[in-house]
C-alpha cells in the first residue's frame, strides 16, 4: 500500500485555505542591539485537507514559522509585519488567552521539534493525559486514560506502558508519545516539526502511514517540517523550500520535483542521497546563508548561487509563476531562465541498477 | 599504545533496568513475591572497536543503542559483562584512570534539547570540557571549532544561549563540544539527525577527516541509512537488545541478510514523488523489552518465521564471507550445529 503524493490535488483545488501567511516578517532581539531577522516576507497557503511540507537548511526559519502560528515565539521574538490567517481569521495579534481558548490543541496542535523535551519529567504519561483532558475536555479520568491507550496503540507503543515516566522511554518512544498527545483533541491542523527524526525508518513508515490515514478519517490538515525531502515527496501534497529566512519556492510536490526553478531547490534535490544508489557522492552546497541583522533587501542565496547576477542584490526577489502556473512560485528573478541556465542540474542522471531491485 | 588490542571492547554486555520504580512497587513485589520487572535494554552484546575504525549502530527505536553507548563510556554500570579500554577492564580503573579515559573518549548525546545546559552560552558550553580537563585554550580555538561545524560566522553564535538556537544549531554545538578536546574515540548518538543534507555532508566530511587523518575511532548511531554509508566502515544492526547482523556497510545495504535488516532498507523513503515504493512486510507491534519472546526476538514480526525460530539463533558467519555475521535460522544448517547459543 502506498499513498502517492499529489493524489488529492484535484479535490484540494475546491477547498478553502486553512492557513495563510502573507508577507510575514519575524524578528528576534538579542543582547547588544543585534536583531535576528529570522523570517522575511514569508507568503504561502495551506489548503484544507492538504499536507504541506516545509523544508530548508538548518537555521533557515522553519521552527520560527511554526512557533509564530500558535503564538509560541520565544519572549524575544515578534511578528513585526504581515498577516497570518487561520480559517480566514487573522490571528497574528491574538493574546495568550485567545490562543489558549480558541487555537491551541483544539484547532491547531503542535508536535514540537524538541518533543522529547516537552513531556513533563515528573509526571506519568497517563497523568499527563488526565491533565490535558481536565483543561480542554469533559472527559473523565478513566475516559482520558482509555483514550491515551487507544492513541498509544495508534503510534505503536505498548499499552502496558502508559503509566511509565518519560525517562523510562527511549528517545523514539517519547516522540511517539508526543504524537499520541497531539492527536488527543482531534485538531483540524497539526504542525509537526521534525516528527520522525528520532525514529527508525520502519517506525517512521508506520507512523507516516497512519498520519496519512488521519487525513481522510479525521479531516486533518498538516504542516510538516522536516529536513528530509524524501518524507515530503512521499507524504505531502504541497510544499515550500526555504533558504536564509526567505521562501525560495512553493507549489505542488510533483511540480517542484519535476520543475524546480529556484537555484537552492535545484541544488538541494541534486544533493539528496538516494539509498537506491549508494555509490553517489554526498554533495555540500558551498557557503553559508548570510547573517540577517537587518531585513534582507537582496536574495539570501545570492552569495552561494552559481547563477547570481548584480540584480540579485538589488532587492528581495518577487515570486515568479513557473510556466504560467499560479500555484507554483519561485522567488528568484531568474526563475524563468533556469531551465536553460541549470540544464545540467535538471536532467536526472541516468542511474545504474537500484539496489532495491535485488532485495525484493 | 599497541594496536593489536581494540581501543574499546565489550564482552557479553548486559544492561537491565529495574522498572518497579517507587518504594511502593518494591514493597508490593516483596509481599506478592513477584520478581521485579526488568527492561532488558542491552542483552549480550559483543563489540570490538579498533583504532581508526568507524562502526555504525542502527536499529529500532528503543532497541538499546543509547544504553549501549552510555555503558561504553562508563555512565551506566553493566549488569553483566565487561568493558575493556585498550585491553584493561574499566571496572578496575582508579579515579585518575577514569579521568584519563574521559578525556580520550567523548560522547555526543542524542538529544541536544536535553543535553545542553540552558544557562550556558555557546562559548561556555564548548569551552567547558577543556576547562574540566585543565587544557589551556584561547577563544580562537573555540571559534574555529564552531566554524568547522558550519556555525559561521562564529561571533554570531558565541553569546547565544541554547533556547536562541535552532534545533540543528544546537546539535552542531553539541558536536563542537564533543570534538573540542581532540578525543581519540568519539561516541556519537545520532549527531546529525536534525540536519539538512548539505549541513550533514559538511559534518560527515569533518568526521571523516578526523578518522582519516588523526586516527580517531568512532561509534556512530544513526537512523539514516542513506547517509551512514558515507561514514561507517561497518554496521551493527540491533534488535531488542541484541546485534542481529554485522557487516561492512556496502554489503549490508546491497545484500542485507537478516529479515529485519531487509525490512529496514525497504522502509527508507525515496526522494522521488513518482516512485511507488513497496512498504516493508513487517507488521505488528515493535518489540517489547520487558516481555521478551523466547527464541528469535524478531519472530513475531518476521515474514520468514519457521518452527525452529522458537530457539535462539546463533551468530553465524556467512560461509562465503568471514567478514559478516547474522543471527537468523535461515542462514545455517541445523543438522550440524547446536541451536542454543551459549550465553
Ligand atoms: N530566541 C532566539 N533568539 C535569537 N535568535 C533565534 C532565536 N530562536 C531562533 N533564532 C535564530 O533564528 C534562525 C531561525 O531559527 P529556527 O529555529 O526557525 O530554524 P529552523 O529552520 O527550524 O532550523 P533547524 O532545522 O536547525 O531546526 C536561526 O538562525 C536561529 O539561530
Ligand atoms: N533509565 C531507564 N529506566 C528504565 N528503562 C530504561 C531506561 N533507559 C532506557 N530504558 C529502556 O531501555 C530500552 C532501550 O532504550 P535506549 O534508550 O537504549 O534505546 P535506543 O535504541 O537508543 O532508542 P532510540 O533510537 O529511540 O533512541 C527502552 O525500552 C527504554 O525504555
Ligand atoms: S535571485 Fe539570483 S541569487 Fe537568488 S537564486 Fe535567483 S539567480 Fe540565484
Ligand atoms: Mg527547527
Ligand atoms: Mg537512543
From TrEMBL, chain A:
GO cellular component, one term: plasma membrane
GO biological process, one term: peptide transport
Membrane topology: Peripheral membrane protein
Subcellular location field: Cell membrane
UniProt keyword Cell membrane present: yes
Major place of residence: membrane
Limits of the ABC transporter domain: 19-269
CDD domains: ABC_NikE_OppD_transporters
Molecular functions (GO terms): ATP binding; ATP hydrolysis activity
A Pfam family recorded for this sequence: ABC_tran
Highest taxon in the source lineage: Archaea
Family annotation (InterPro entries): AAA+_ATPase (IPR003593), ABC_Ni/Peptide_Import (IPR050388), ABC_transporter-like_ATP-bd (IPR003439), Oligopep_ABC_C (IPR013563), P-loop_NTPase (IPR027417)
Sorted UniProt keywords: ATP-binding, Cell membrane, Membrane, Nucleotide-binding, Transport
PANTHER family attached to this UniProt entry: DIPEPTIDE TRANSPORT ATP-BINDING PROTEIN DPPD (PTHR43297:SF2), OLIGOPEPTIDE TRANSPORT ATP-BINDING PROTEIN APPD (PTHR43297)
NCBIfam families for the chain: oligo_HPY
The name this protein goes by in its record: Putative ABC transporter ATP-binding protein
Automatic annotation (TrEMBL), chain B:
Family annotation (Pfam families): ABC_tran (PF00005), oligo_HPY (PF08352)
GO MF term list: ATP binding; ATP hydrolysis activity
Gene3D superfamilies: P-loop containing nucleotide triphosphate hydrolases
Enzyme class: hydrolase
Domain spans labelled ABC transporter: 27-265
EC id: 3.6.3.19
Alphabetical keyword list: ATP-binding, Hydrolase, Nucleotide-binding, Transport
Classification via InterPro entries: AAA+_ATPase, ABC_transp_ATP-bind, ABC_transporter-like_ATP-bd, ABC_transporter-like_CS, Oligopep_ABC_C, P-loop_NTPase
One GO term of the biological process aspect: transmembrane transport
NCBIfam families: oligo_HPY
Protein name, as recorded: Trehalose/maltose import ATP-binding protein MalK
Organism listed in the record: Halalkalicoccus paucihalophilus
Gene (UniProt): malK_22
Amino acid at each position: 500500500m502506498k499513498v502517492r503524493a499529489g493524489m488529492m490535488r484535484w479535490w484540494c483545488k475546491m477547498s478553502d485555505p486553512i492557513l495563510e501567511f502573507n508577507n510575514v516578517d519575524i524578528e528576534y532581539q538579542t543582547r547588544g542591539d543585534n536583531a535576528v531577522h529570522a523570517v522575511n516576507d514569508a507568503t504561502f497557503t495551506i489548503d484544507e485537507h492538504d499536507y504541506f511540507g516545509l523544508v530548508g537548511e538548518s537555521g533557515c526559519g522553519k521552527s520560527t514559522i511554526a512557533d509564530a502560528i500558535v503564538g509560541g515565539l520565544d519572549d524575544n521574538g515578534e511578528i513585526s509585519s504581515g498577516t497570518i490567517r487561520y480559517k480566514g481569521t487573522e490571528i497574528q495579534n491574538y493574546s495568550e488567552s485567545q490562543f489558549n481558548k480558541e487555537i491551541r490543541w483544539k484547532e491547531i496542535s503542535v508536535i514540537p521539534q524538541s518533543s522529547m523535551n516537552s513531556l513533563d519529567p515528573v509526571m506519568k504519561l497517563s497523568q499527563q493525559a488526565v491533565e490535558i483532558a481536565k483543561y480542554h475536555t469533559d472527559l473523565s479520568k478513566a475516559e482520558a486514560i482509555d483514550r491515551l491507550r487507544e492513541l498509544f496503540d495508534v503510534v505503536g507503543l505498548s499499552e502496558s506502558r502508559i503509566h511509565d515516566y518519560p525517562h523510562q522511554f527511549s528517545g523514539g518512544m517519547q516522540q511517539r508519545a508526543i504524537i499520541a498527545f497531539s492527536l488527543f483533541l482531534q485538531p483540524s491542523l497539526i504542525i509537526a516539526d521534525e516528527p520522525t527524526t528520532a525514529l527508525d525508518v520502519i517506525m517512521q513508515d508506520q507512523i507516516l502511514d497512519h498520519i496519512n490515514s488521519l487525513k481522510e478519517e479525521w479531516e486533518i490538515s498538516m504542516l510538516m517540517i522536516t529536513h528530509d525531502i524524501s518524507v515530503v515527496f512521499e507524504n505531502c501534497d504541497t510544499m515550500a523550500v526555504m533558504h536564509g529566512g526567505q521562501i525560495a519556492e512553493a507549489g505542488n510536490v510533483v511540480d517542484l520535483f519535476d520543475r524546480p526553478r529556484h537555484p537552492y531547490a535545484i541544488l538541494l534535490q541534486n544533493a539528496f542521497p538516494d539509498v537506491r544508489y549508494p555509490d553517489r557522492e554526498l554533495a555540500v552546497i558551498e557557503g553559508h546563508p548570510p547573517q540577517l541583522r537587518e531585513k534582507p533587501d537582496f536574495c539570501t542565496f545570492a552569495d552561494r548561487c552559481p547563477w547570481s547576477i548584480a540584480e540579485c542584490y538589488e532587492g528581495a526577489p518577487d515570486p515568479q509563476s513557473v510556466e504560467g502556473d499560479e500555484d507554483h512560485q519561485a522567488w528568484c528573478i531568474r526563475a524563468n531562465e533556469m531551465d536553460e541556465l541549470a540544464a545540467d542540474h535538471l536532467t536526472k542522471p541516468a542511474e545504474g541498477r537500484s539496489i532495491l531491485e535485488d532485495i525484493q | 599504545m599497541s594496536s593489536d588490542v581494540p581501543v574499546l571492547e565489550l564482552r557479553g554486555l548486559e544492561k537491565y533496568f529495574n522498572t518497579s520504580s517507587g518504594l511502593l512497587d518494591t514493597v508490593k513485589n516483596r509481599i506478592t513475591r513477584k520478581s521485579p520487572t526488568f527492561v532488558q535494554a542491552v542483552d549480550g552484546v559483543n563489540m570490538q572497536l579498533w583504532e581508526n575504525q568507524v562502526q555504525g549502530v542502527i536499529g529500532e527505536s528503543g532497541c538499546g543503542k543509547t544504553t549501549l553507548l552510555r555503558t561504553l563510556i562508563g555512565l551506566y554500570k553493566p549488569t553483566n559483562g565487561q568493558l575493556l579500554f585498550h585491553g584493561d577492564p574499566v571496572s578496575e580503573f582508579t579515579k585518575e584512570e577514569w579521568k584519563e579515559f574521559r578525556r580520550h573518549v567523548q560522547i555526543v548525546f542524542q538529544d541536544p534539547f536535553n543535553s545542553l545546559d540552558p544557562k550556558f552560552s555557546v562559548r561556555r558550553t564548548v569551552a567547558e570540557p577543556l576547562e574540566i580537563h585543565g587544557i589551556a585554550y584561547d577563544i580562537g580555538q573555540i571559534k574555529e571549532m564552531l566554524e568547522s561545524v558550519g556555525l559561521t560566522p562564529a561571533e554570531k553564535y558565541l553569546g547565544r544561549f541554547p533556547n536562541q538556537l535552532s534545533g540543528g544549531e544546537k546539535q552542531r554545538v553539541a558536536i563542537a563540544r564533543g570534538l573540542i578536546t581532540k578525543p581519540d574515540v568519539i561516541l556519537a548518538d545520532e549527531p546529525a539527525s536534525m540536519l539538512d543534507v548539505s549541513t550533514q555532508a559538511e559534518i560527515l566530511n569533518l568526521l571523516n577527516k578526523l578518522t582519516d587523518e588523526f586516527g580517531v575511532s568512532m561509534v556512530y548511531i544513526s537512523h539514516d541509512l542513506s547517509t551512514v554509508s558515507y561514514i561507517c566502515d561497518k554496521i551493527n544492526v540491533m534488535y531488542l537488545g541484541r546485534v542481529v547482523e554485522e557487516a561492512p556497510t556496502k554489503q549490508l545495504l546491497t545484500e542485507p541478510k537478516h529479515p529485519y535488516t531487509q525490512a529496514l532498507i525497504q522502509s527508507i523513503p525515496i526522494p522521488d514523488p513518482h516512485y511507488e515504493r513497496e512498504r516493508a512486510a513487517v507488521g505488528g507491534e515493535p518489540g517489547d523489552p520487558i516481555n521478551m519472546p523466547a527464541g528469535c526476538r524478531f519472530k513475531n514480526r518476521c515474514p520468514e518465521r519457521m518452527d525452529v525460530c522458537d530457539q535462539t539463533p546463533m551468530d553465524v558467519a556467512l560461509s562465503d564471507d568471514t567478514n559478516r555475521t547474522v543471527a537468523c535460522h535461515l542462514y545455517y544448517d541445523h543438522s550440524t550445529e547446536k541451536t542454543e547459543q551459549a550465553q
